[in-house]
Structures are given as C-alpha cells and as structure tokens.
Specification:
alpha+beta; 2 domains; 5 helices; elongated
Length: 136
C-alpha cells in the first residue's frame, strides 16, 4: 500500500495519503483530508532503504568507497571513520566522538593515541588492523 505526499493548493498544507494499491492511486482523485480540496500536487517523497547488516558490511569492504581516503590527512580519516560508524549503526561512545573531533580539527593520529592510551588494545594500536585507525 503506497503512501504519497501532496501539497494542497487550497489550504497550502503538505498531506500524506495512503492508497490501497498503486492502481488505486493512479485512477482515483486525491482529496485533501484537511480541507477537502481537490487541487493537490504530488511531491517526490524521501526514500528509505532497509539494508541487512551483511549488506552494510559489504559496502564498507568496497574498495571504491575508499577512493577519497588519504591516510596522511586526519580529516579524511575522520570522514571515513564516521562513515564506518554510520554503517554499523552502533553508538561507539564518547571516546570515539572525541577521536573523530580531534581528527576533524587536524590533529595527528599518533598524538591522539599517545594522549588516550586506554584506546589501545593489546599490542598497542586501536585494535582495528592495519595502522592505528583501520587503514590498511
């Protein structure tokens, strides 16, 4: 059952209409539920795509997504880390946000690691593989 958004030209409000089928939406006249007006303009709605965890992880492993990554640029590392965090959908905590904020400010990753020793896992580093920030 599709939901379409419209702007009512009579009352100037944005309204959403639920249709029983796509054919119903094409064949029947849209009527504003607020004012009863029949002068509605259909809008392009925002699209949401539900993805599985496997699909999100696959997109992180895509080398094409790393084309803008410059391991020598802290701001580039921060953008990539934000993207990784967004794809996992998990809250990575205040320490992660602090590291990202410092990278976005241009701070060197090594100095961040030295000032935050609790972030390093066994054997040093951030425990992400590759260098300290997960860049291979």
């Amino acid at each position: 059952m599709p939901i379409y958004e419209y702007t009512c030209q009579d009352c100037k409000r944005r309204v959403s209409l639920l249709w029983r089928s796509f054919a119903d939406a094409d064949s029947r006249e849209a009527v504003c539920p607020r004012c009863g007006g029949k002068h509605l303009t259909r809008l392009i709605s925002r699209v949401s795509v539900v993805r599985s965890e496997a699909s999100r992880m696959d997109s992180l492993a895509d080398p094409g997504d790393m084309s803008g990554l410059d391991e020598n640029d802290p701001k580039s590392l921060a953008r990539f880390m934000r993207k990784m965090a967004s794809e996992t959908g998990e809250d990575l905590g205040p320490e992660f946000e602090e590291v990202i904020g410092r990278l976005e400010a241009g701070e060197d990753p090594e100095s961040i690691e030295e000032s935050m020793p609790d972030l390093a896992g066994e054997g040093g580093g951030m425990g992400m593989g590759g260098d300290d920030f997960g860049v291979m």
